[in-house]
Design brief:
It is built from three helices and no strands. The chain has about 80 residues and is mainly alpha-helical.
Length: about 80
């Protein structure tokens, strides 16, 4: 939303990718601590499959929203959806 140039957007993507990677071990540990031992595999599978599903939904939603309101609004509304 704050990017005025593609370079700024690329920097934000790199920063968010770094923090996403840094938080994965914490999310895995929370799953290990929160679920029963016979449900950990299902919980990890659900966690891992949520990212590709989200990418599919974003891929469908961004063009729909962006064609009507612009790409900044599309990026702002995707997390809400």
């Amino acid at each position: 939303l704050t990017s005025q140039h593609w370079i700024h957007l690329a920097v934000w993507c790199i920063v968010s990718g770094f923090f996403n990677g840094a938080l994965q071990p914490t999310a895995n540990q929370m799953i290990l601590d929160s679920f029963a031992s016979n449900r950990i595999g299902s919980a990890m599978g659900l966690k891992q499959s949520s990212v590709p599903l989200t990418m599919i939904l974003v891929g469908l939603a961004i063009p729909t929203i962006a064609s009507s309101f612009g790409w900044r609004w599309a990026l702002a509304l995707i997390p809400i959806l």
